[in-house]
Specification:
The protein has 105 residues and is mostly helical. It contains three helices and no strands. Helix 2 crosses helix 3.
């Protein structure tokens, strides 16, 4: 087969599939310490290019479990009437934001 000028020439691709009893990698578990994120730095979570999967998961966990994050979500929902209405629909109603107190004589 002729190759175009400037293009690499590759021979036929041969793929050998071994039965699982013969493949040394068939049941190999890869630790999350050896899997790296390869992409742009993620400003919201702090995940950076070359962080391991372990580190990335820890950063996500720290972000979503923080009180500040939960407070930000609640504030965003409360301040947006459309989101608040949708949230109330999802939870089958909301407690009224204003309440009145009655004193019994």
């Amino acid at each position: 087969m002729a190759c175009l000028p400037g293009m690499p020439c590759f021979g036929p691709l041969v793929r050998v599939v071994y039965p699982t009893t013969c493949d040394p990698y068939a049941n190999r578990i890869v630790s999350s310490d050896f899997v790296e994120y390869n992409g742009d730095n993620l400003s919201c979570t702090g995940i950076q290019n070359c962080d391991t999967l372990t580190v990335a998961l820890q950063k996500i966990d720290n972000k979503i479990c923080s009180d500040a994050f939960v407070a930000q979500i609640i504030q965003t929902i409360t301040n947006d009437p459309v989101l608040l209405a949708y949230f109330c629909q999802l939870v089958n109603g909301c407690i009224p934001t204003t309440t009145t107190t009655t004193t019994i004589p």
